[in-house]
Fold this protein.
Amino acid sequence: MTESSQAKNLRIVYVWDADYPWDVRTEKICLALTEAGHDVHLVARNSNRAPSTEKLREATVHRMPPWRWVGAKLDTALGFPAFFNPRWRSLIANTAKEVKADVIIVRDLPLCPTAISVGRRLHIPVILDMAENYPAMIRDTWAAGRHRLTDYAVRNPRLAELVEHYCTTHVDHIITVVEASSERLRDLGVPAQKLTVISNTPPIRRTSGRPVPPALQSDGRVRVVYLGLLEIHRGLDQLIDAIKLLHDAGHVEFKAVVVGSGRDEHLFQQRAARLGLSTSDVEFLGRLPHDHALAVVASGDIGVIPHHATESWNTTIPNKLFDYMSLGIPVVSSDTRPCVKVLCETGAGLSFLSGDARSLAAAMLEFRSPERRSVAGAAGVAAVRTEYNWDADSARLDELVGHVARGGLS
């Protein structure tokens, strides 16, 4: 047990702006703090009208009480996670007062000003868990033409930049997921001592392997697996085009297996159909329970990260990189800076030119050989066991939260 948990078991409120369950990083952080001996309370949205309070192994969940008198559709709209929404302020403040919180951790920007306001009023330090470069992520959505009319008011890139400046100035500490994100914030004037990297790594135990259900065993084809959200800026169109290029060149043994859902899923399905690719060439499995999704990854031969190399992806690092590595499959990633750095240091895979389907196809061809895949996969497993693992990150998280609760670090 670390110094912080020995000194005091803390009462922690973690603010998550969507329904829970589920989110992988939210669960990992809350569970790590609970296992360190702290009393963790998770504040969440409640679009599904689930029980207002629920005890889970990672935290006690406090969901937004539904306004049943306005009807489900309007109630959902009125629960939108905007910092000016009084329902969120009330939920966060009431939970923090009820549990006598020692520290508030708020995920990303939408509710960070609200958490800061509550923290100031109740004299509770606030940590921002910056999993994304939020302004850049919104710019990606707008650049792809996938923004909605309401986004001009609530997901506007310029507004996000102003909110980010306010939050990074007024929170007590900031957690980033990769050094490139910390570097960006330092360039914006955030003091280095206010930043700590807690990455998107998996537990070491995952490297021991997991049984693959018989239905997922290889059919003799080279299975290129994608795990994650389905959005334009994540580059699934390049993966589909690369499969088509390989098939046209006679490499029909390659197939893509896509696990996840998202606002642009139908666009990718339509693209595959237009290119004459069948469901056995590009298989969309939809969103799966996390353990099932990891089993599909474990059954794959190559894990792909086709994200566009925009500012957003150059300043964050995806969970899927370490998921692929921990399960022993080689990684083929676009040339986003954080992913290239990890792959070059570890030998766990190859990178390709972002947005270039031919470059992606060539990188996939490099892993036709089972022997080549085995070498890269083993390198990924070794790197997770020695460096890129949640065991180390969670210990650093526990120490950080303890310091911030005692008024240190910032």
